[in-house]
Predict the structure of Major facilitator superfamily (MFS) profile domain-containing protein.
Amino acid sequence: MENQLGVLNALDAAKTQWYHFTAIVIAGMGFFTDAYDLFSISLITKLLGRIYYFDAHSAKPGTLPPRIAAAVNGVAFCGTLAGQLFFGWLGDKLGRKRVYGLTLMLMVICSIASGLSFGKSPHGVMATLCFFRFWLGFGIGGDYPLSATIMSEYANKKTRGAFIAAVFAMQGFGILTGGIVALIVSAAFDHAYKAHPYNVDREHSTAPQADYIWRIILMFGALPALLTYYWRMKMPETARYTALVARNAKQAAADMSKVLQVDLNAEQEKVDKIGREQFGLFSKEFAKRHGLNLLGTTSTWFLLDIAFYSSNLFQKDIFSAIGWLPKAETMSATKEVYRVAKAQTLIALCGTVPGYWFTVAFIEHLGRFTIQLMGFFFMSVFMFALAIPYQHWKTHNSGFLIMYSLTFFFANFGPNATTFIVPAEIFPARLRSTCHGISAAAGKAGAIVGSFGFLYAAQSTHLDKVDKGYPTGIGVKNALMVLGAVNCLGMLFTLLVPETMGRSLEDITGENEEDNGHQQSFSVEKVPV
């Protein structure tokens, strides 16, 4: 491109080097914390029920009432959705780097604070936990658009998809670490403070010290984020923001000369020429050029997260059904935390983590479009395969578990990764972070629908079989059928998402041509690397 700035050309053509890997780790730590937090709360809810909602007359251990459970699980989603919209917008207004440290500090403070509580009453503890988990979610939400945008603007065009996927894949390590920390902490407490199973001694099945377990697990989430704070502050602003949005060619060249360790010229006259036509997010021009793409990224992320987060909900039921988890009343509180953590860590190792890294390995060969379409296709196939012969799977547990793991595998080697990558590539620099935030927020809205809608929908159609405090639902079989249909819709909306493999960001968005009054049109064909 004759209009392309030298500094951006240098980034696009740069060989993979050390700064790429440090950027992946620095950007990925937010996702590590995000996954650690969302994952660990599912391990802790059973313990909270036993500690704060103990009923000596009940044959089963205490559980969180439905509304409290929904609040504890869901309040972080609400915070994340708000954070994605707010920090996405702020990242385009103030710059990626200036906002980046703020989101991390918010995550660190709220991770620590969510392990503390004011008062000892159940209401006091739950209110404190929900308050800090909302603001923790708010910080995590900011990390989505900022991390994706920073990585896409730093990367070279040949490996950009793999690098953004690697940032997202840090979630896998967060999930694993969540499981391992819970295993270590619960095993240590179980060893130090012996407790009887609930059906042997109800009063003493939960050791008083068990109250520290959930606090330690939650607070540990602050550590990895805190360790990367210094490096986040040292990262220079991305050249694409400095040159194309702040319009400071000299600063962009100076920053990238240090990063790439080459001499680059400041080309202020080129910067002044490029992209003088500044249309806004709500303009007709934006709707004409990028409207369909924004519809594609928001709808696919929304549909994916309905399926992805509601599948997570079935985990504990599935584990109990296939005999991985003994009945709650046959275990002490610490033993239950240990067993749930063990089962979830195994699922993460087998299905979740490999899927992420398959995307990293193949995205620059197959392309985003193909991986997303394939992922949605196989997710719907496995959902229907689980749903239609549902009664058969009740007696064939191992088959059910394999199919269930494959659903997660193709979510991660599929739309869970690509819906994160594409919005960071297809929008102009001055709106990139905002549009990624909007797409991610649509995803979190899907997560809220998936988590709460299906919590109620998956309840049995028979009143005597529903969980305590819930109305009757449509049953797990029908819920799985609905999820299969949601994935089919995801395939349909994927057709609105363009292929971006092997192209420079300015070539994709048409920013090089904006001053000539014509826009390069998108094409959905695959581009050879």
In short: Confidence is low (pLDDT under 50) at residues 514-529. The CA atoms of residues 103 and 139 lie 5 Å apart. The two ends are 17 Å apart (CA to CA). The chain has 22 helices and no strands.
